[in-house]
């Protein structure tokens, strides 16, 4: 595994409506590494992921992905760089089919091939292929989580950011999500998973970062 970071955040400062949300937060992710971002609700986990994705702008610090200055990059460049994002609220378009939702970020890419990415997603999650024609609004919350993961996988060729993927889902689906994520190990795909506790996936992580009030805390053992 290369020692050169794929994602590096150093001293990130982010404010939301003049309230400090990240306070000098730092984090490093290596190629192919599975990293846990652990913290209670409101600790800054989603803020960090939204900053990486360009939804929020840092007021200070440095944020780089594969050598690119993310703070100075347009939001759409994340997909082109190979970053896939699964927001906690799933963020699906209700009136579109499952397959259309998965392909949304692929369609804006100049390099990704739709069939190739669909084959990859459906190969990992055959149950998603079975509901490809269904509209997203007809799916259960758990099924929507799988589709949101599929959409992130379709465009995330270098890195996945998964915000609370296990939150609010039935134990069987939580187990299934863990299986899919675990299957990505060894594929040189970096994965960052945020969650409020470690009940679901401690065995997945090669490294953990604990965040509290927007700042780094000592890692729990």
UniProtKB/TrEMBL annotation:
Q: Which Pfam families match?
A: ABC_tran
**Per its UniProt entry, which superkingdom is the organism in?**
Bacteria
Does the record carry Transport as a key word?
yes
InterPro entries for this protein: AAA+_ATPase, ABC_transporter-like_ATP-bd, ABC_transporter-like_CS, BCAA_Transport_ATP-bd_LivF, P-loop_NTPase
Key word Iron-sulfur present in the record?
no
Question: What family does this chain come from, according to its entry?
Answer: Belongs to the ABC transporter superfamily.
Gene Ontology BP annotations? L-amino acid transport
> Which keywords has UniProt assigned to this entry?
Amino-acid transport, ATP-binding, Cell membrane, Membrane, Nucleotide-binding, Transport
Tell me which Gene3D superfamilies the record gives: P-loop containing nucleotide triphosphate hydrolases
Identification of the protein by name:
ABC transporter ATP-binding protein
Q: Which SUPFAM superfamilies match?
A: P-loop containing nucleoside triphosphate hydrolases
Cite a single GO MF annotation: ATP binding
Domain ABC transporter, chain residue ranges per copy: 7-221
């Amino acid at each position: 595994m290369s020692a050169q970071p794929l994602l590096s955040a150093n001293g990130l400062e982010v404010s939301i409506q003049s309230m400090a949300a990240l306070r000098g937060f730092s984090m490093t992710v290596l190629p192919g590494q599975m990293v846990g971002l652990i913290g209670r609700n409101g600790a800054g986990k989603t803020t960090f992921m939204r900053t990486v994705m360009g939804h929020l702008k840092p007021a200070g610090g440095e944020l780089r992905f594969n050598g690119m200055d993310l703070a100075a990059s347009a939001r759409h460049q994340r997909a082109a760089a190979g970053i896939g994002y699964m927001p906690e609220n799933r963020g699906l378009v209700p009136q579109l089919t499952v397959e259309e939702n998965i392909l949304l970020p692929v369609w804006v890419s100049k390099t990704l091939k739709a069939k190739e990415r669909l084959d990859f997603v459906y190969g990992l999650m055959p149950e998603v292929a079975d509901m490809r024609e269904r509209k997203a609004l007809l799916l259960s919350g758990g099924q929507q989580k799988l589709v949101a993961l599929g959409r992130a996988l379709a465009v995330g060729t270098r890195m996945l950011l998964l915000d609370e993927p296990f939150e609010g889902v039935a134990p069987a689906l939580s187990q299934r999500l863990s299986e899919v994520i675990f299957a990505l190990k060894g594929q040189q795909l970096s994965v960052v998973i945020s969650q409020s506790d470690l009940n679901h996936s401690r065995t997945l992580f090669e490294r953990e970062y604990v965040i509290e009030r927007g700042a780094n805390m000592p890692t729990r053992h």
